[in-house]
């Protein structure tokens, strides 16, 4: 690439940006799990818009439905007007996702980011319960707006905001004190003690698998206990499925095989199917007590996103074929990562297609990602110290492309660990 390709970004764009520091190329095209650089290089994408591209880049069916919508003058931005695009998405969501799972929820469209869905969830829990406190977990990630940021456990993300909003109690996630300490029991004890000051939470917000927190999957048993604790103490259970949902763990919801029954579920990232901005929460009909304007946002009616979101549901979730394929690919990914980890005395972790390898330190993990990029693989780190090399490829990645990317990873670990 020429210097001119990226020079404008240094001159005109805020230096707050981060991904372009790790991957300083000009990208021009993308299809499924491959991204093309302006210089003709073809990169394998193990980042997938941080799980917002579960169905890959530019799915042909989503693309053509979107083009049809645009050429027929379908609405673009509809605030919360009734539109055909929204109607068709809601009908698909009801028929393909809710009914077969016996789930009775209403969908509230929030502003377009995950953080906005989290804000809506926490506000609704306060309104429903008349309580203030929210319990979140160590290393959880819920976004960077002030309320969501306060619930976020990673201090790196919180740094710039100084003291975050109060009213959040950060409890220990599963395994935080090692395998022998039951952190759910600790939370129950604290919530049972009026002297703790956190005895009446409005909600407990939790990820079934922590994405930014380092691909840490809570055990089914721990998650069930957390749900029971929420019920016992009159708090709503919010499952943040923004990163782990939409098939990432092998099922549409990250918690469905565990049998959880959350009060509120957050959706963003891959819900729109094609990387268009869209976020929502699922709420119980009896909790649908908002008055108009209590939680709105101009961009809660992105009709282009409704079109591609509907196609995603119809194409991938009408039967269990896709789910089975994702689970198979997830098992394959697990065994290859396990081998990479074993080669160097490291550990692999995660669930479904949401997995990583603990490289032992942030420096090593960064060196591995840099080495991967030299060999045309786009991959990033996560975890409390950025020590986890994180695989979040599209769920639709072809098996050969997945293996080609994993070969690059395997070599990069070998190079860095010597
Ligand atoms: N919750 C989770 C679990 C996330 O992974 C993220 C994004 N990484 C968010 C919330 C925030 O989403 P957004 O960046 O769209 O605000």
From TrEMBL:
Going by the record, the broad EC class of this enzyme is transferase
Keyword Transferase in record: yes
Kindly indicate whether the keyword Flavoprotein belongs to this entry: no
Under the heading PROSITE patterns, the entry gives: AA_TRANSFER_CLASS_3 (PS00600)
* EC number of the protein: 2.6.1.76
UniProt GO molecular function: diaminobutyrate-2-oxoglutarate transaminase activity; diaminobutyrate-pyruvate transaminase activity; pyridoxal phosphate binding
Q: Which cofactor does it need?
A: pyridoxal 5'-phosphate
Q: Which InterPro entries match?
A: Aminotrans_3, Aminotrans_3_PPA_site, Dat, Ectoine_EctB, PyrdxlP-dep_Trfase, PyrdxlP-dep_Trfase_major, PyrdxlP-dep_Trfase_small
**Source taxon at top rank:** Bacteria
Keywords from UniProt, A to Z, are: Aminotransferase, Pyridoxal phosphate, Transferase
An example of a Gene Ontology BP annotation on this entry? ectoine biosynthetic process
What pathway, per the record?
Answer: Amine and polyamine biosynthesis; ectoine biosynthesis; L-ectoine from L-aspartate 4-semialdehyde: step 1/3
Family classification:
Belongs to the class-III pyridoxal-phosphate-dependent aminotransferase family.
Protein name listed in UniProt: Diaminobutyrate--2-oxoglutarate transaminase
């Amino acid at each position: 690439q020429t210097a001119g390709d990226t020079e404008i970004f240094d001159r005109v764009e805020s230096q707050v940006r981060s991904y372009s520091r790790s991957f300083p190329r000009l990208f021009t095209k993308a299809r499924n799990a491959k991204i093309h650089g302006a210089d003709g290089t073809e990169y394998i994408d193990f980042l997938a818009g941080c799980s917002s591209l579960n169905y890959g880049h530019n799915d042909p069916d989503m693309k053509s439905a979107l083009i049809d919508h645009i050429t027929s003058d379908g609405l673009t931005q509809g605030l919360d007007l009734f539109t055909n695009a929204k109607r068709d998405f809601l009908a698909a969501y009801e028929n393909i996702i809710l009914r077969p799972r016996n789930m009775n929820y209403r969908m509230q469209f929030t502003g377009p980011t995950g953080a906005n869905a989290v804000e809506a969830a926490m506000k609704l829990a306060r309104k429903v319960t008349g309580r203030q406190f929210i319990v979140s977990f160590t290393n959880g990630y819920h976004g960077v707006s002030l309320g969501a940021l306060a619930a976020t456990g990673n201090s790196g993300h919180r740094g710039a905001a100084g003291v975050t909003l109060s009213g959040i109690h950060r409890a220990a996630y599963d395994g935080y004190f090692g395998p022998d300490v039951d952190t759910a029991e600790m939370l129950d004890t604290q919530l049972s003690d009026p002297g703790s000051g956190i005895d009446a939470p409005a909600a407990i917000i939790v990820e079934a698998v922590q994405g930014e927190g380092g691909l840490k999957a809570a055990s089914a048993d721990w998650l069930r206990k957390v749900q029971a604790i929420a019920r016992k103490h009159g708090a709503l259970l919010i499952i943040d499925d923004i990163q782990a949902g939409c098939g990432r763990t092998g099922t549409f919801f990250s918690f469905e095989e565990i049998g959880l029954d959350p009060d509120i579920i957050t959706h963003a990232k891959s819900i729109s199917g094609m990387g268009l901005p869209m976020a929502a929460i699922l709420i119980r009909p009896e909790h649908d007590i908002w008055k108009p304007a209590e939680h709105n946002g101009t961009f809660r009616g992105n009709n282009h996103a409704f079109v591609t979101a509907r196609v995603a549901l119809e194409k991938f979730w009408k039967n269990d074929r896709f789910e089975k394929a994702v689970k198979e690919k997830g098992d394959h990914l697990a065994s290859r990562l396990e081998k990479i980890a074993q080669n160097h005395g490291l550990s692999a972790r995660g669930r479904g297609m949401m997995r990583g390898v603990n490289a032992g330190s942030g420096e090593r993990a960064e060196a591995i990602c840099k080495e991967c990029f030299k060999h045309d693989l786009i991959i990033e780190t996560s975890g409390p110290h950025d020590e986890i090399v994180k695989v979040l490829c599209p769920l639709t990645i072809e098996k050969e492309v997945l293996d080609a990317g994993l070969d690059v990873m395997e070599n990069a670990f070998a190079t860095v660990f010597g």
